[in-house]
Amino acid sequence: MEEELSPSARRVAQALAALGAGGRVREMPASTRTAAEAARAVGCAVGQIAKSLVFQVAPDGRAVLVIASGANRVDEKKLALLLGGPVRKASAEFVREVTGFAVGGVPPVGLRTALDVLIDEDLFRYGEIWAAAGTPRAVFATTPAELARLTAGRVARLAEEPPQPPAGG
Ligand code: 5CA
């Protein structure tokens, strides 16, 4: 039930509802802090986890949200070409400042500030994907197409090649 969610997860649930998203936020009994943990908690492939990574683009340091398949490492050279300048991973402090959420629970929607969003095309291999919902235990299910709609994200090839083999197994 939404009223049982922690305040951060409730903010995400409200953002999803306002955007007309189909999935509901679930707080899991186990950690969903990393993509591997989230996949285990949900019972899905790690590639189905939509991980949220904040990068900063030089020279001005603007923040961009990269939503990547949990199976992939993001190729910073590809990001630089797409974004028009060298990128670096944001600090945990900066992530909290621009998103309003702590690393490990950063959702793709309901962010404190409007960020440009890039979406890893490999997420489109799956019918259902799962994203963080504000806390290191909260997730929601969506589809790649819905994620693109909710975030107005640009879908691109972002993975380092060759792709990482799926974790676990
Ligand atoms: N809840 C899960 C999956 S739904 C989750 O949020 N996974 S994640 O991969 O999107 O979030 C962890 C990511 O945060 C890591 O991949 C890493 O890029 C970033 N991160 C982890 N530790 C730090 C840190 N100390 N500073 C900045 N970013 C970090």
Describe what this molecule looks like in 3D.
There is one protein chain. The chain has 169 residues and is α/β, with parallel strands linked by helices. It has a single domain, classed as YbaK/aminoacyl-tRNA synthetase-associated domain (YbaK protein, Alpha-Beta Complex), CATH 3.90.960.10. The protein is built from five helices and eight strands, in the order H-E-H-E-E-H-E-H-E-E-E-H-E. It has helices at 7-18, 35-42, 76-83, 92-99, 144-151; strands at 25-27, 49-57, 62-69, 87-89, 116-120, 129-132, 138-142, 154-156. Strands 1, 2, 3, 4, 5, 6, 7 and 8 form an eight-stranded mixed sheet that branches. Strand 2 and strand 3 form a beta hairpin. 42% of the residues are buried. It binds 5'-O-(N-(L-cysteinyl)-sulfamoyl)adenosine. 5'-O-(N-(L-cysteinyl)-sulfamoyl)adenosine is lined by residues 32-35, 38, 49, 51-53, 89, 91-92, 95, 103-106, 131-132, 136, 139. 5'-O-(N-(L-cysteinyl)-sulfamoyl)adenosine binds next to helix 2, strand 2, helix 4 and strand 6.
State the main characteristics.
169 residues; alpha/beta; YbaK protein; eight-stranded mixed beta sheet; globular
Multimerization status: single chain
* Termini gap: 33 Å
Strand content: 15-25%
Under the CATH scheme, which architecture would be assigned? Alpha-Beta Complex
User: Helix and strand succession?
Assistant: HEHEEHEHEEEHE
Contiguous low-pLDDT stretches (5 residues minimum) are none
The rounded Rg comes to 15 Å
SS elements, strand count: 8
Question: Number of helix segments?
Answer: 5
Mean pLDDT, to the nearest integer, reads 95
Q: Could you describe the largest sheet, including whether it forms a barrel?
A: 8 strands, mixed
Ligand inventory reads: 5'-O-(N-(L-cysteinyl)-sulfamoyl)adenosine
